[in-house]
Amino acid sequence: MDTPFSWLPPDMQGSAMISIAIASLAMAKILSTVGAGLTLKNEGIAFGIVNLEVSWSRERAEAIVTAWKNNGVVGKAVQQTQLDFVFLLIYPAALSLACVMTAGGGDGFMAAAGIAMSWIVLLCAPFDALENLMLLRMLKGSFEPNIPRLTAISASLKFLIILLTLLYLLVMVFMK
Prior knowledge:
Elements: H1 10-34, H2 49-53, H3 58-70, H4 74-103, H5 109-120, H6 124-139, H7 146-175
Helix pairs in contact: 1-4, 4-5, 4-6, 4-7, 5-7, 6-7
């Protein structure tokens, strides 16, 4: 069965995985550093940009953006969201390749599940891109009722796929 990395010789997958994983971790660190000031626990914003990603309602989204404006950090939220457009090209590839390598070209249900997950996890990129576009609209003051909902649906689907992918990888590590 073809994978997203069928074009990459198996003997090169390990070094590619290391490179993509390092790039993912570096981008995650950059995003974390840029978004550090977005956590305002006394304002009910314990998880920074994630709180806006899953705000679900116009009222909650407005409250988050207003708190960031009042604390002078809305620019950091914009910068973090813009940088996330780079990250969304990297982390799905890392997770996808991890699934391919874990499946190992074997037979059976778990190998097929790994190949399927290697394709499914790539859906994180368009979900994350849509989420980022909606975040930028909210950060610029557009809170039409469907924007927070659409953002939260995209973010939730992305997080669900990531969780399922990580669960698959964890199960495979313990099975070997």
